[in-house]
Amino acid sequence: MSAAWPEGVERLILEEAGSTNDEAARLLAEGGGAAWVMARRQVAGRGRQGRAWADPPGNFAATLAMPSSEGPAGLALRSFVAALALREALQAVTGLAGTGPDARLALKWPNDVLLDGGKVAGILLETRGRPYPGLLVGIGVNLVAAPPPDVLEEGALPPVSLAAAAGVRVTPEAVLDALAPAFARRDLVLIERGFGPLRAEWLENAAHLGRPIRARLPGMVLEGLFEGLDEDGQLLLRIDGALRPIPAAEVQFA
Predict the structure, then answer these.
(1) What structural domains does the chain harbor?
(2) Average pLDDT, stretch 189-196?
(3) Which pLDDT score, from 0 to 100, does residue 48 have?
(4) Average pLDDT of span 125-149
(5) Burial class (CB in 10 A: 0-12, 13-18, 19+), 95
(6) What is the mean pLDDT of residues 35-39?
(7) If we measure between CA atoms, which residue out of 139, 138, 133, 137 comes closest to residue 67?
(8) Per the confidence metrics, is the pTM higher than 0.90?
(9) Strand 10-14 relative to strand 35-39: parallel, antiparallel, unpaired?
(10) Band of the pLDDT at 131, cuts 50, 70, 90?
(11) What average pLDDT does the segment 118-137 reach?
């Protein structure tokens, strides 16, 4: 275990799990403290909107269970904490350095990490209520394998794996040991200094900033220029000269 592992956070490694989010939710339901739950093989993972997420052995599947009574707005900002921490962790274990939208590792709103323009990782946030409220931060990374293109929805970015795209092989445990302290550091920034510093760092590494995108909402598709984030983490879309904040959407690059 890394010497920098955050104090007071449990580290639980499972050989196999249906879903690491479900395992982490069980810990919260039992009144447990903060914990990272990683599975070497996840057989029933899920992504956004309930989509299946396949994790063969060698890929990374883990969830942070965070006991918290914070409101929805504050909890939602952990998506940016997680994305920035994951990007840092992947840089640390691969040596893929660089900053900015043209770096090999970039960020896509609201919660994806890209490698050379393809999706290498996704993040899923889920909240839990009484009797023990909290947040689940689920993270999946294509370390050795990526889903086949034929399972993707229309317009989705092509999935890539770290091994194929970068020629780098790392273990899930190495990613976890880099990710946990990176998340803890940025979460402390959010608590002590607010969203501003994280927003600035996220925008510095955002893919397609200032370029046309499509935002798919229920019943409609909006097209415009991706102008950034507001103070609450909403996407700012410029349509016919006016800025429109988008709280949640599926973003596709035009």
Answers:
(1) 10-204 (3.30.930.10), 212-253 (2.30.30.100)
(2) 97
(3) 55
(4) 90
(5) exposed
(6) 97
(7) 133
(8) yes
(9) parallel
(10) confident
(11) 91
DSSP for the chain, written as a single string:
--TTPPTT-EEEEES-BS-HHHHHHHHHHTT---EEEEESSEEEEE-GGG-EEEE-BTBEEEEEEEE----HHHHHTHHHHHHHHHHHHHHHHH-----STTSSEEEETTTEEEETTEEEEEEEEEEE-SSS-EEEEEEEE-SS----GGGSPTTPPPB--HHHHH-----HHHHHHHHHHHHHHHHHHHHHH-SHHHHHHHHHTBTTTTSEEEEEETTEEEEEEEEEE-TTS-EEEEETTEEEEESS-EEEE-
Q: Which two tokens stand for residue 26?
A: 């069980």
Q: What is the pLDDT of residue 132?
A: 82
Question: Lowest mean pLDDT: which of 13-22, 43-52, 97-106, 164-173?
Answer: 43-52
Cα distances from 119 to residues 11, 17, 112, 144, 250, in angstroms, run 26, 23, 7, 13, 14
Tokens 């229920």 sit on residue: 218
Query: Tokens for 193?
Result: 């200094």
| Closest alpha carbon to 204 in 91, 107, 116 | 107
